[in-house]
Amino acid sequence: MFKHLTTIVLLLFIFKIGFAQQQPAYPRVTGYFSILNPIGTWTKDGFKSNFRDVYTVGFPFGMNILKSDRFGISFEVAPAIRTERNISKVNTVLFHPGAMFRFKHGFTFIGRMAFETNGRFGVTPVFNQVIKKGKDASFFVSVPIPVRFGNDLPASISTGLQLGISF
């Protein structure tokens, strides 16, 4: 009887130790959804505002694979809707993979490659700041600076304001 009781206590102790250890924090997967309001674009022909003749809005969503407190990989898809002469349509879908470099105080730099279904391609440096961190979700603001080439159009550089929620 004592032998069985000792075995049971020993097994319970081992079981408790096995489950008492915390799971590693990384790798960790997070997701997000946001809205992107482009501000304007510069080309060799000058500056074009997003608010003048046409209006474009994007809806980036994605997944981040965080390797550590300092580094992660991000996969983003961003459909864009363009409104011109009272006609709205999906203008392009952007495939936007990138590397995340995370710093203190919720600041992240994301270097993204860009592949658009309208034939444009390039890079997008993104400056991201968490503005409200919650238990299950965080609100963030980003400033992307897209640089685009291709599709027989002049090279361009743009900027915008992105607001989103990560979870």
CATH architecture: Beta Barrel
- What is the chain-wise order of helices and strands? HEEEEEEEEEEE
Number of strands: 11
Give the CATH level 1 class: Mainly Beta
- If you compute it from the alpha carbons, what radius of gyration comes out, rounded to the nearest whole angstrom? 23 Å
Give the amount of beta strand, in percent.
over 45%
Residues in helices, as a percent range: 10-25%
Global geometry? elongated
Largest sheet: 11 strands, antiparallel
**What structural category do the secondary elements indicate?**
mainly beta
Query: In whole angstroms, how far apart are the ends?
Result: 52 Å
List the total number of helices: 1
Mean pLDDT: 91
- Indicate the CATH topology: Porin
Question: Can you tell me the number of structural domains?
Answer: 1
Low-confidence stretches: none
Structure, explained:
The chain is mostly beta strands. It has one domain (24-166): Porin (Beta Barrel), CATH 2.40.160. Helices cover 11% and strands 63% of the residues. The chain has one helix at 2-20; strands at 28-43, 46-49, 54-58, 61-66, 71-84, 87-102, 107-116, 121-133, 138-144, 147-149, 156-166. A hairpin with a 4-residue loop joins strand 6 and strand 7 (107-116). It is elongated, with a radius of gyration of 23 Å. The model has no long low-confidence stretch (mean pLDDT 91).
